[in-house]
Amino acid sequence: MRTTVVLSALTAAIAHASISTKAASKAGTALPPMRRMRQPLAQRRTAVRSSETPAETPVVAEEPARQPYKLPRGSAPMGDYFDPLGLSKGKDESELKRFREAEITHSRVAMLAFLGFLFQEALLDRPLFSTPELGGIKGPAIYHFQQVSERFPLFWVATLPFFAYFENIRARKGWADPTKGGPLFGLKEDYTPGDLGFDPFQAYPLDSNGKKAMQDKELNNGRLAMLGVAGLMAQE
């Protein structure tokens, strides 16, 4: 009798559980399966996080790539931006233009100096700075500067206004005015280093290819002249 009552109670409990599960499924509140409940806690946390909406990453606009400044290179063996000491690394366009301006200026001075070495020593028998007391200039060209100063002490002072005049023209032509908002020791944006418009013999080409070839020739000869003058001074 007791066994019959226990079996009846179990049968009723199982039927009630089945009815509750079906009702919950229809209502959208189905209980999770047991195998899902048996998953490790870490996996369940990961599943919950993956289901969350990820935070939007702010979009940062990329900085436009700066085009390198197109300076004349020269030609072999001194072309292609010869820079063994790495002085141009990390420099902006304004500084590179200033370096090129200095290079061209010193190249032109060196070319004149090389001719001066040969010209001065070739005219020792017909000196330009001769006095009865000291006579003419003698010896290697590296000592002519001192001999001129001994004979005519005011000669170099008289040449200062001459140099200042042309340096003033160069500064007004290419250098930015810091008193008007320009950078300090900076060149004008529309100025090409070395292009002062000085062409008394009208030898500068008008076409772009001819201009580039002339600029390369000037760079090559100027660099060679700087090395040549340094060699003459070391030998003498």
Automatic annotation (TrEMBL):
One GO cellular component term noted in the UniProt record for this chain: membrane
Positions of region (Disordered): 24-64
Signal sequence, renumbered to the chain: 1-17
Superkingdom field: Eukaryota
Any one GO MF annotation of this record: chlorophyll binding
Biological process annotations from GO: photosynthesis, light harvesting
Keyword presence, Chloroplast: yes
Annotated chlorophyll a 3 binding sites: K217
Name of the protein in its database record: Chloroplast protein LI8182.2
